Amino acid sequence: MTYLDYQATTPLAPEARAAMRPWLEDGGFANPHSPHRMGRAAAAAVEVARDQVAALMPPGGRVIFTSGATEAINLAILGRARVGALSRIAVSAIEHAAVLETAAASGAVVDVLPVSPAGLVAADAPIAAGTDLVAVMQVNNEIGTIQPVAALAEQAHAAGALMLVDAVQGAGKIAAPGTGFGGADMIALSAHKIYGPKGIGALWLRDGVALAPILHGGGQEQGLRSGTLSPALCAGFGAAAALCGKLWQSDAEHVDRLWKRARGALPGWVLNGDDGARWRGNLNLRRAGLDVARLMSDLRDIAFSAGSACASGSGRPSHVLAALGLSAAEAKASVRIGFGRYTGEEELARALARIDAAARAQGDLAW
Length: 367
Prior knowledge:
Blueprint: E1 2-3, H1 14-20, H2 37-54, E2 61-66, H3 69-82, E3 88-92, H4 97-105, E4 109-113, E5 133-135, H5 149-158, E6 162-166, E7 186-190, E8 201-206, H6 231-265, E9 270-271, E10 282-286, H7 292-298, E11 302-303, E12 305-306, H8 319-323, H9 328-332, E13 334-338, H10 345-360
Parallel strand pairs: 1-11, 3-4, 3-5, 5-6, 6-7
Antiparallel strand pairs: 2-8, 7-8, 9-10, 10-13, 12-13
């Protein structure tokens, strides 16, 4: 099986697996919130992991562990609403459903910032008076475009708003640790998008930003997130983050080589999203008349994504591709190919040759 779906999830790094193992075996099962020696050892592992994740973030904030980025985004948006600090929110038209649906459920007025046909929010996008929060993702999960979050954070702050950045696809990849987030006040992360385990994420919260919890119980995670933490998941997340801190530049260079190889291997396909301002591990392409379902059926030993579904199996045209001005037919003729640290150049070349050949074999495409 050739895996080319890195935006959906990344392979677990061996270093992350090794960091998790002690907390899954022997005496590592202890509750990190227990006061005895085993519990204190587990709690220490959690705090090591917290520091490792925090090292990817800007200074002047704290890391709150969650079950994933979806919960982190919910905590950021609904947590602001629950302290009475969210009456108006601005979101980009191509945000993940976790942002769009949570904003809609918050009770706030929602302004949608449009994107260009290249999939970019304007750096000087106007922020309405009275806006309390601006939410724009760092790297789009469907088309890979890198948004001008630093400029937008300035706009947000000038309007008196906070800035929330969904950094799921960009953290640990596109910039040196601690950079690339502009003046964000809250940043959402997911471990399994940076070669860590599924089931854990984090919200980075700038010092002084107030939130109310959205989960109620024991208040284990700094009073903002109730529930017992998993030392194993935390340790895996921390190890993956630390590895990204060391390898972000070599990872980016590797991905750039793969991108160049991929672009040369698929002549005639149309790129969705900007060619320059993007994470090059995301290749979203379309061909007029392409039957993507048939293509995927013909290539069952290659894992890639249909570019037209905003949710797995939904069958609905992507709201991201629609925001670029693509028709439903164009969206449904799109595929997303994702690669990263563990993708080999020759492996990628062979898979792309087969994808191209299978598409051409459909016979009725506009080549």
